[in-house]
Amino acid sequence: MKIQTAITQKLEQHFSPAHLEVVNESHMHSVPPGSESHFKVVLVSENFAGLRQVPRHQQVYKVLADEMAGEVHALALHTYSPEEWQATGMAPDSPQCLGGSKADQ
User: Fold this and answer.
1) For residue 16, what is the domain's CATH number?
2) pTM summary value
3) Given this model, what pLDDT does residue 80 score?
4) What are phi and psi of 60, to 5 degrees?
5) Domain-embedded: residue 105
6) Which CA distances in Å does 69 have to 16, 37, 40, 64, 73?
7) Residue 48 maps to a domain
8) How do residues 59-90 score in pLDDT, each as one tens digit?
9) What's the pLDDT score for residue 103?
10) Would the pLDDT of 8 be above 90?
11) 76 DSSP 8-state letter
């Protein structure tokens, strides 16, 4: 849980979130057991008020640049302002992985 912990700490420090979920979804993909390569992030921050999704995601990617350049293969981002979160209250479920393993070829 080294990478998941690093992601959580960086997002907490940079965004002071009203709500934060960092979920390791690696087990849903063709990766070795115990991998930390696929994550879902639900992040609610005042920083996102008035911004569209692309600038929000760019802010998150900038904060997590080291993780994205390393072990993290996929990052599903669900970013909300506090008002948006209050209106929805939940992020969508992640879809099942439809990809295969290179070993399946």
Assistant:
1) 3.30.300.90
2) 0.82
3) 96
4) -65, -45
5) no
6) 24, 11, 17, 9, 9
7) yes
8) 999 999 999 999 888 899 999 999 999 998 77
9) 47
10) yes
11) E
Cα 47 from Cα 55, distance rounded (Å): 11
Question: Residue 105 pLDDT > 70, yes or no?
Answer: no
What is the residue whose two structure tokens read 């990766």?
Answer: 31
Number of domains in the chain: 1
Residue 35: give the domain boundaries: 2-87
| 9/64 Cα distance (integer angstroms) | 10
CA-to-CA separations, 71 to 33, 34, 42, in angstroms, rounded? 14, 12, 20
Q: Which tokens hold the place of 11?
A: 């997002």
Tokens for 99?
A: 């990809």
Task: Decide: 39 and 25 in contact? Cβ < 8 Å.
Answer: yes
Asked if residue 93 has pLDDT above 60, the reply is: yes
Pairing assessment for the beta strands 74-80 and 38-44 based on DSSP bridges: parallel
Strands 38-44, 19-24: parallel, antiparallel or unpaired by DSSP? antiparallel
Residue 17 domain-assigned (yes or no): yes
- Say if 94 falls within a structural domain: no
